[in-house]
Please model this.
Amino acid sequence: MAAPESGDGNNGAARMVTLISSDNTRFEVEAAAASLSQTLQLTILDGGGGGGDGIPLPNVDSATLSKVLEYCIKHAPAAANGGAPNATAVDRAELERFDNEFVNIDQSVLYSLIMAAHNLEIEGLQSLVAKKVADMIKGKSPMEIRRTLGFPDPTPEEQAEMNAHMLEYGWAYE
Amino acid sequence: METPHMDSGARAVDRLSELPDCIQDVDAGPQSILDDILSRVTSRQACRTSVLSRRWRHVWRAVPSRCIDIDQLESSAYHEVNKPAEEDHHLGFKSYQDASTDRLHRQMKQQHEFERFADRLTTQHDPSSPPLDTFQLRVSCVDLRRIARPQVDLARTRAPPRRVPPLLRQGRPSRSLYALGSMLPRPHRVPSPRPLDRCGCYCTDEKLVLALPRLTSLRINVSGCPPVVTAEAEMPSLVSASLLACSSDGDLDTLCSLRDARSLDLSGFLATSLLVVGESKQGVPMFRNLKTLLSECELGVECQVLRRFLRDRRTLP
Model:
């Protein structure tokens, strides 16, 4: 593992860090996996999160965090190989299968994941959820997209504004 | 793509609108999830999100890629018009001619619509956001005017003006440029050849001029009766380039400016012209970075061209 030893007695084993969700659940995870988050990476490099302290994540609840960590643990070995240039086709196919399965989730969970991926700056996860949302809006009309993404029903004013805008942008709908 | 399980049960409440705008660092690529999302759908679809709500009105305009593709005329009407003419043998010559003329008129109208669409899509880029990263133009239209000549009285038919979309014309630097298709439109009017900061693309009456020093990927694959494409600036960052030659001189100039490319894919060049290009200019080795050369051109007697290209190379590809 690429993570440096922090000297907290974990010699030999991979270094572990503790993350604390907004509802105070503690997750112990390998530093290499948590480091997929750009936000956490620096703290972890500085030796934070080890031992008893843990890193508090006030924006992420435990259900979302466990999902995020599931992703990180799966992707950490490949990321440690620098984007896995020497990964076998089988490994890549397995990751792809995992990714597809991973985003096949309830939409509210997906949204929590999007926010977490954004807050924690986990690049691969950001692309994965972006792709999922892109698939959700492909080939849909604005009203369908609104409904799909869970916008509230438009107020009459909003509806009027949308209609006016539709006129202006009619060329994109021809 | 329909995702039925998404629509079942209680509706999730939108949270995407909370996400920040596209913050873009040209070298780091997309920084925002909204940006990432809209980069993954067609430019037409991205543009449609402007209607969603006030929040979404301008999000798409900052997306750093544009893809203008004739296939985005996705209406069934387009495919209807362009499907092969039915072979109706018992039609008389007159009615056959009428049918063809009619079809041609509809094709021209559609072409015109596509150009308007392309114009609008390219003029809508948010000027305050960083320049486009990728611009892809794929035009696949036949030269309608030429086809029209034998059958249609041109005096009565207003042929669609063929123009390079404004973004290409006025030019904004981008890292990838793809121009594909059977014809790159000739400019309708002659805009003044004044690139922004000598960086970008612009069009004179005869040529499409590229001055894109940051370009890393270039693909020009235009056959038919294109304007000559020339490159004005060297492109030191170029990683891969693909060039299909159609006319003699301009294409060679373009090729010369691709000298830093690591990967070249050439077709349509004559062996003699390639030999001229392969000559070193003032002792500067051409194509010093070349690692891959794909060529569908004549390579000359005993592969002279190949040797010339490789002369200054230390490692063989």
Q: What stands out?
A: The interface with chain A takes residues 1, 3, 5-7, 9, 11-19, 33, 36-38, 40-41, 44-45, 47-54, 57, 75, 113, 116-117, 120 of chain B (CB under 8 Å). The mean pLDDT of chain B is 58.
